[in-house]
Amino acid sequence: MLVTTLEELRELAGREIAVTEWLEITQERIDQFADATEDHQWIHVDRERAQRESPYGTTIAHGFLTLSLIPKFLQESIQVTGLRMAINYGLNRVRFPSAVLAGARIRARLVLQSMRDVGDATEVIYSITIESQRAEKPSCVAEMLARYYR
């Protein structure tokens, strides 16, 4: 984990700051996400049908499940000290170039794209690429905005 201050973080703009550990995306996690979001589309939760009818030959994770793991990956990768509060301010762009197959392991690459002062906060934009061990293309590419308050 990179532990840094806002001042030190500014010096890392434009650079990759972390690559996370691999995380297995189990069918149980996919099912729990389906329950939480009420998105029970068969391609996510019906193993037999997915094996027969899906081009992937198995169930796949929801794109939003993959996206929802970004805060976990960010918290595991970087800790900015001296803050009163940090908030997720949103996303600029999100794409899902390839599916995450059930049982696959994923990890995130984090690039500190930019930083700027906004009122009493510092806004940081991270470019995050989530890779799957079973895919040639990234599973998710997103720009995440965070605001750090001193």
Element layout with pairings:
Elements: E1 2-4, H1 6-10, E2 15-19, E3 23-24, H2 27-37, H3 42-45, H4 47-53, H5 63-68, H6 70-77, E4 78-80, E5 85-95, E6 105-118, E7 121-132, E8 140-149
Distance between the termini: 21 Å
Could you say which overall geometry the principal axes of the C-alpha atoms support? elongated
CATH topology: Thiol Ester Dehydrase, Chain A
Looking at CATH, the homologous superfamily is: Hotdog Thioesterase
Unreliable runs: none
Number of domains: 1
Q: What is the CATH architecture descriptor?
A: Roll
Structural class: alpha+beta
Describe the main β-sheet briefly: 6 strands, antiparallel
Number of helices: 6
**Number of DSSP strands?**
8
CATH class: Alpha Beta
Secondary-structure element sequence?
A: EHEEHHHHHEEEEE
**Helix amount:** 25-40%
The radius of gyration is: 17 Å
What is the residue-averaged pLDDT?
97
Percentage of residues in strands: 35-45%
